[in-house]
């Protein structure tokens, strides 16, 4: 008799994480309507949506390393959700900028993107997020094929760097907070680089020596053996 | 112009009181009181709450809400102001003796922050010119320097070196002598709250807010252009003059418009923050994009 195991992650944890991911927005709205933001609420909304974009990017980038290091395979089931939430907060951040901050002064925004490097890199990062959000559903993955989909979604690394640089470049004097984000994103990307190097070395050695011993390798490594796309 | 200055100085409203004096002695708590004076902006002042909860005072932290949160234990007395350098009467004054000879007056000024927001603030203070005449600078003195108190034990921002502490600022002597330039000891007819630069701060309404140095303990007179804190921090972004100028963009953002706190749509930023008629002559012939 086969018993269907209860899917804790899918039925309990996922909805909980989804709800939690909306808390920053709810808090912002609550504070806004209860007059608990500062004297400059538009700046507060800009800052809050910006920082939560960066936080969700960091969380998304942390999932694969956490999954590998802690050997929690179910973590990968959250990657899409946190990634889409990064886009969600980025879209709110961008909307705040064009609507509340610039109030559709297109010329001024055009000048901003052209002249201000911190705006340019923030804008570029947001634009790069769009194709990722558009291809975040299962069918898109099928249409593109795993290889191309993976390659496309590796843009996340670039977006993470862009987000951190955007933050660093807009700060006036105190670099402590953006530095923390820079270090975290840096570590998460270096881990991948490390794995990439380790894996390609193993790959070339293994190719010269003997066929792969499946008992010694993780599923993802065996996948990358048969398919040279390294999954990071 | 000078007549106007005298008229404004003569139109005295406040008593000569320091921030240390209890509020009830300042009389009326509500603002405005009396009639509009020549230098007053006729715009609606921002609320006391906005003015006292949305502050840039990095000595108490970099968030706008930090100064109000972190300045509660800041000690205002005893407070000594040192006047030094190229003056005939250098001296260390107790705050009360420093303020006493001057008549405090209300002045409603616009304040434009370099970050792109602005407020209208009813200060209570006296023209810096009055003090300068009192201490008699020598003919060599060309610039006035200012220094904020350095007390890392009370000012948590000073424990980290994101700016060069203590905060220093400076003005050309003629800018300092200008009748708009104020030493403020209060706002809304009351003593200055800690987060707004108590007990004594500078107000230079045609320059970006950071020129208006807070919690002053030193005023000096020198021959050469003095170093200023934000200029040391980022010389390409913050010049010595830092006059409000919509045509001279900050390298990282436009200065063409500003958000008046409390308003939704942005306003166009005006040359010298709208005080061009009064102060324009100070910069005649100067390239203000070069001397930003």
Chain-averaged pLDDT of chain A: 87
Largest sheet of chain A: none
Low-confidence stretches of chain A: 210-230
Q: Beta-strand percentage of chain B?
A: 15-25%
Terminal Cα span of chain A: 37 Å
Round the mean pLDDT of chain B to the nearest integer and report it: 89
Tally the structural domains of chain B.
Answer: 1
Bulk shape of chain A? globular
Helix and strand content put the structural class of chain A at mainly alpha
Largest Cβ-defined interface: A-B, 21 and 28 residues
Radius of gyration of chain B: 18 Å
CATH topology of chain B: Sulfite Oxidase, Chain A, domain 2
Largest sheet entry of chain B: 7 strands, mixed
N-to-C span of chain B? 26 Å
Task: Report the order of strands and helices of chain A.
Answer: HHHHHHHHHH
- The run of helices and strands of chain B is HHHEEHEEHEEHEEEEHEEH
Query: How many distinct domains of chain A?
Result: 1
Radius of gyration of chain A: 21 Å
**Strand element count of chain A:** 0
Describe this structure in words.
- The complex is a heterodimer of chains A (232) and B (292).
- Chain A has 232 residues and is mostly helical.
- Chain A has helices at residues 8-33, 41-70, 79-101, 106-115, 117-134, 138-144, 146-153, 155-170, 176-208, 219-226.
- Chain A has one domain (10-197).
- Chain A is globular and about 55 Å long.
- The relative contact order of chain A is 0.08.
- Residues 210-230 of chain A have low confidence and may be disordered.
- Chain B is an alpha+beta fold and 292 residues long.
- Helices cover 16% and strands 22% of the residues of chain B.
- Chain B has eight helices and twelve strands.
- In chain B, the strands form two sheets. In chain B, strands 3, 4, 7, 8, 9, 11 and 12 form a seven-stranded mixed β-sheet that branches. A five-stranded mixed β-sheet of chain B has the order 2-1-10-5-6.
- At the A-B interface, α4 of A face α2 of B.
């Amino acid at each position: 008799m086969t018993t269907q195991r209860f899917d804790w992650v899918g039925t309990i944890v996922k909805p909980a994480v989804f709800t939690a991911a909306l808390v920053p927005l709810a808090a912002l709205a609550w504070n806004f309507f209860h007059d608990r933001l500062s004297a400059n609420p538009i700046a507060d909304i800009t800052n809050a949506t910006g920082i939560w974009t960066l936080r969700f990017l960091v969380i998304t980038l942390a999932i694969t390393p956490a999954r590998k290091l802690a050997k929690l395979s179910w973590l990968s089931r959250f990657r899409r959700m946190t990634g889409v939430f990064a886009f969600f907060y980025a879209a709110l951040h961008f909307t705040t900028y064009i609507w509340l901050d610039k109030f559709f002064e297109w010329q001024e925004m055009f000048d901003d993107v052209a002249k201000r490097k911190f705006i340019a890199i923030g804008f570029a990062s947001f634009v790069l997020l769009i194709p990722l959000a558009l291809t975040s559903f299962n069918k898109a993955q099928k249409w593109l094929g795993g290889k191309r989909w993976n390659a496309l979604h590796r843009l996340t690394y670039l977006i993470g760097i862009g987000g951190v640089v955007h933050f660093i470049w807009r700060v006036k004097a105190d670099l402590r907070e953006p530095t923390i984000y820079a270090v975290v994103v840096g570590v998460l990307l270096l881990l991948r680089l490390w794995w990439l190097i380790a894996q390609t070395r193993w790959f070339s050695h293994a190719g010269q020596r003997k066929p792969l011993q499946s008992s010694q390798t993780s599923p993802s490594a065996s996948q990358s053996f048969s398919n040279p796309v390294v999954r990071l | 112009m000078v007549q106007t200055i005298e008229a404004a100085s003569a139109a005295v409203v406040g008593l000569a009181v320091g921030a240390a004096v209890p509020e009830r002695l300042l009389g009326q708590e509500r603002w405005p009181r009396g009639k509009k004076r020549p230098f007053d902006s006729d715009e609606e002042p921002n609320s006391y709450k906005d003015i006292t909860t949305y502050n840039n005072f990095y000595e108490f932290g970099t968030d706008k809400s930090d100064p109000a949160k972190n300045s509660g234990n800041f000690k205002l007395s005893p407070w000594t102001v040192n006047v030094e350098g190229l003056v005939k009467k250098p001296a260390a004054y107790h705050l009360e003796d420093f303020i006493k000879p001057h008549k405090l007056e209300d002045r409603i000024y616009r304040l434009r922050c370099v970050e792109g927001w602005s407020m209208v603030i009813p200060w209570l203070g006296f023209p810096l010119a009055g003090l300068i005449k009192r201490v008699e600078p020598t003919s060599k003195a060309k610039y006035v320097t200012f220094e904020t108190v350095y007390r890392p034990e009370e000012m948590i921002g000073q424990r980290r070196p994101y700016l060069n502490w203590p905060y220093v600022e400076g003005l050309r002597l003629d800018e300092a002598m200008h009748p708009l330039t104020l030493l403020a000891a209060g706002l809304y007819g009351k003593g200055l709250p800690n987060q707004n630069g108590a007990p004594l701060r500078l107000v230079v309404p045609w320059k970006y807010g950071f020129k208006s140095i807070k919690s002053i303990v030193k005023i000096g007179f020198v021959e050469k252009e003095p170093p200023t804190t934000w200029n040391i921090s980022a010389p390409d972004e913050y010049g010595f003059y830092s006059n409000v100028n919509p045509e001279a963009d900050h390298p990282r953002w436009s200065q063409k418009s500003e958000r008046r706190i409390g308003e939704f749509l942005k306003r166009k930023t005006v040359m010298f923050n709208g005080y061009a008629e009064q102060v324009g002559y100070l910069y005649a012939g100067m390239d203000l994009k070069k001397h930003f």
